[in-house]
Amino acid sequence: MSKKLIFIAFVVSLGGFLFGFDAGIISGVMSYAGPEFNLSEGQVGWVVSSPSFAAMLAMLFSGRLSDMIGRKKYCWLLLFYMQCPHYFLLMRPLMRCFI
C-alpha cells in the first residue's frame, strides 16, 4: 500500500468517526434541549436527523459547485453559509433555528 492510500483512508475514517461523534452528542443533548424548547417526538427526530440530511444534500452538490466556481471561492461561500445560522440561533431561541 502506498502512503497516499493510507493517508486517504485515515482522513475518510476520521471524517466518519467525527460525524458519528457529532450524532452522538446531538442525541445526548436532546434529553435536555427537548424539554427546554417543548419539542414533540417528531420535532426531536427532525432535529437529530437534520445533520445527516444536510450532509446528504451537500454531497450531491458540493463537488460540481466546487469545480464550477473554484475551490477557494467555494470554501469562502461555505464559511459564510455555515456562520449565518449561528447568529440567528443566538438571536432567537426557537426550534426552527435548529434546522
Topology (SSEs and partners):
Layout: H1 3-36, H2 41-69, H3 71-91
Describe this structure in words.
It is built from 3 helices and no strands. It is extended, with a radius of gyration of 17 Å. Helix content is 85%, strand content 0%. With 99 residues, it is an all-alpha fold. The N and C termini lie far apart (42 Å). It has helices spanning 3-36, 41-69, 71-91. The longest helix is centred in the N-terminal third of the chain and has 34 residues, at 3-36. The chain has one domain (3-98). The mean pLDDT is 83.
List keywords for this structure.
99 residues; mainly alpha; 3 helices; extended
Short description:
By secondary structure, this protein is mostly helical.
Number of helices: 3
What is the SS-derived class?
Answer: mainly alpha
From the spread of the alpha carbons, the general shape counts as extended
From the N-terminal CA to the C-terminal CA, the straight-line distance is: 42 Å
